[in-house]
Design goal:
Blueprint lengths: L12 H16 L12 E6 L5 H12 L3 E6 L11 H9 L4 E5 L3 H10 L4 E3 L7 H15 L9 E5 L4 H13 L2 E5 L11 H4 L4 E4 L2 H5 L4 E4 L16 H6 L6 H4 L7 E4 L11 H4 L6 H19 L3
Parallel strand pairs: 1-2, 1-3, 3-4, 5-6, 5-8, 6-7, 8-9
Bound molecules: phosphoric acid mono(formamide)ester and norvaline (NVA).
């Protein structure tokens, strides 16, 4: 039976904690792993641009002794109408795992259902679980080394997008308080309604309420990949989202030792002020680095190594 990594909600706390422990051990150097994926090949399919996911997966694959294969979907027969199912079956005969960044979440579930090898989610329109695992690892390093998050409060600001969805799933599994400050028109996907009903997850249209006593303040671009207008022209969304910017006055409402997180790429002056992005409470570079470590642990978990 293959083990996919498609969504955080697919796993229990003990399983995700074991992955995080493994990531911490590999990062610290206490766990040699240069041969851990020896003789394995991992294909990465990209339907959308990437800097962090592309580089961190490729470097991580090499650091564990495996061979990475980067495939752009428009250069594959996928781009000319070959089905996802046929692609899954063919790749299963060549490589040992697939990481895919795709536009529609249904594509990854279709791929996984026809592949006989593990499939890892490198971002869909609905979720970004590898990112939020890196975020949880970063939160643990700074705020909760024991991986007990029960006293933590995370506040999300802005678009109720794919990254927000994975944070919602993480709050459901790990049990931390998650307060989302989002414009009512841009709330999370209705498929998450059952999690939004949990007592530790709330939604408000008032950013200052969500910020109060927060340990972590997190946001993301106003305009995700694939949205019309591109990152620099989010049109009407700008007006809706501007009140949710994380800036110095919002940070001041949180705990004095609160941290600022962002999956990157960040657009200074839009979802967060430059002063916050580049300020003393920002942990964005550590967060980005942790993509490498946690994804190595996710690959080892899926490949049972
Ligand atoms: N955060 C993130 O996934 O970045 P990339 O789009 O650069 O991969
Ligand atoms: N929400 C963003 C995340 C980018 C890493 C997007 O989907 O474009």
């Amino acid at each position: 039976m293959t083990v996919d990594f498609i969504d955080i909600a697919d796993f229990d706390q003990a399983t995700l904690t074991a992955i995080l422990d493994d990531a911490v051990a590999m990062k610290s150097g206490t766990k040699p792993h240069g041969e851990r994926l020896a003789h394995q090949t991992v294909a990465m399919i990209f339907e959308k641009p990437s800097t962090r996911t592309r580089v961190s997966f490729e470097v991580g694959i090499r650091q564990m002794g495996a061979v990475p294969l980067v495939l752009k979907s428009e250069e594959m027969q996928l781009g000319r109408g070959e089905t996802i199912a046929d692609t899954a079956k063919v790749l299963s005969g060549y490589v040992d795992a697939i990481m895919i960044r795709t536009s529609r979440h249904e594509i990854i579930t279709e791929l996984a259902s026809h592949a006989t090898i593990p499939v890892i989610n490198g971002l869909t329109d609905r979720s970004h679980p590898c990112q939020v695992m890196a975020d949880i690892m970063t939160m643990a390093e700074i705020k909760a080394p024991s991986l007990d998050f029960s006293a933590m409060k995370v506040a999300w600001f802005g678009d109720g997008n794919n990254v927000a969805a994975s944070w919602i799933e993480a709050a459901a599994v790990f049990g931390f308080q998650l307060d989302l400050a989002v414009p009512p028109a841009l709330g999370p996907d209705s498929s998450l309604d059952h999690l939004m009903a949990l007592p530790n997850i709330t939604m408000t249209a008032k950013p200052e309420d969500a910020a109060i006593d927060a340990d972590v303040l997190v946001t993301d671009t106003w305009s995700s990949m694939g949205m019309p207008g591109g990152y620099s022209n989010s049109g009407d969304r700008q007006g809706l989202l501007r009140p949710y910017q994380i800036n110095e006055s919002l940070m001041a409402k949180a705990k004095a030792d609160a941290i600022f997180m962002h999956c990157l790429p960040v657009y200074r002056g839009q979802e967060a002020s430059a002063g916050v992005v580049d300020g003393a409470q920002s942990v964005i570079w550590q967060e980005a680095e942790n993509r490498l470590h946690v994804q190595k642990a996710i690959m080892a978990f899926c490949l049972k190594r």
